[in-house]
Amino acid sequence: ERERERERMESKQDIENEEEGPPPGWQSIPPPQPPPPPTAVPSEMTQMVCGSCRQLLSYPRGARHVQCSCCQTVNFVLEAHQVGQVKCGSCAVLLMYPYGAQSVRCSSCRFVTEIGVHNRRPPLSVQQGRPPPVPNPVH
Description:
alpha+beta, two-stranded antiparallel sheet, two-stranded antiparallel ribbon, nucleus, Zinc finger LSD1-type domain-containing protein
């Protein structure tokens, strides 16, 4: 009888052990956690052409300088309202320049075109119907 009692107790322990947790090899999956709130809005990317090697560069909007990964030239970034346009006085290629410049050299024929009232075009932002942004008094 003691043998039967011992077997019954062992069997009872096995049942209790099964009820205590999952079967061997089974892992509980924690409930999904909500994603953390975004700390910042991902930057919108924009592009420009390197002024030295003509490589197309991508950079986050709002950057003031972009270093070319090919030639290492640091390019000054101009917003649309800061760029003037004029046709080359020799080959008629449309040239862009920092608004307010006195002259611009053509990258195709190397001719220097003087910027004046007779050939100045409004900034691209004005041509596209967008007013220039309001200056930030903090900067």
